[in-house]
Structure prediction request, 283 residues.
Amino acid sequence: MSSYDHLSGTYVKVSSPQPHVALVELGRSPVNAFDEEFWTELGHVFDRISEEPTVRAVVLASAIPKLFSAGIDLGSLSGSLVAEPMDPSRRALQLQGHITSFQNSISAMERCRYPVIVATHGVAYGLSVDIIAACDVRYAASNTIFSIKEVDVGLAADIGTLARLPKITGNQSLAAELAFTAREFSAAEALTVGLVSRVVDGGRDEVVKAALETAALIAQKPPIAVLGTKKILLHARDHTVAENLEYTAVWNSAMLQTQDIPDAFAAMKKKQKAKYGPMLPKL
Prediction:
């Protein structure tokens, strides 16, 4: 089994509890509040995972037993908004660059080559929802409480929730209500509206176990097919049916040449599990 310790950072730890599965755990005590160092590290870790040839599926969870994340570190937020006197236009450009860099870090789960399953528990506020929305599959422990908290601290959510949540839920009215009010909503409601696909009875251990089981199942599948499925699903979200069909035809004209297909057929014929090569060559 591969070890993924080398992919870890200060607050974001990566391990391999099962073959080809990376478990990414958030661990900035006491409440996983995100400052710039933390969110930048999260983006860098996922970018490194995307280049790791033996990974086939990723689980994202909190290492803190009582919660997923309280969201943004308010001290860090207030510090970033305090600036020496500057021309307003230049200050706006500076802030735009800061926000864009932040967005890029949180979008790392979406652009990761491998499917990312997020497992939430306890409190999942503010930036938590941005992170969750950027993942491919979303599970919640039954004790999870969500909230899009940004309006309560005086800003519009700007890291991905407002872009992704209406498309995830298919309900613009609901997305607006949750974002305007910052009200808490339960795992059960998150399941009903489509934010999560499974609610697992219990807390952290139970939901992480369920996510790892799904990741292990994905990791047995032909990796090029899984990669293509993620790419095509994301493209479909943002394009018309006709555009997506064209994209799929171009994508598969290359990817149907993979060795994974004859390997899969040979394994089925022998009623064995197929063994597939790494996604990328080792450099």
The first strand starts at residue 12 and ends at 18. Residues 16 and 149 are 33 Å apart (CA to CA). DSSP finds twelve helices and twelve strands in the chain.
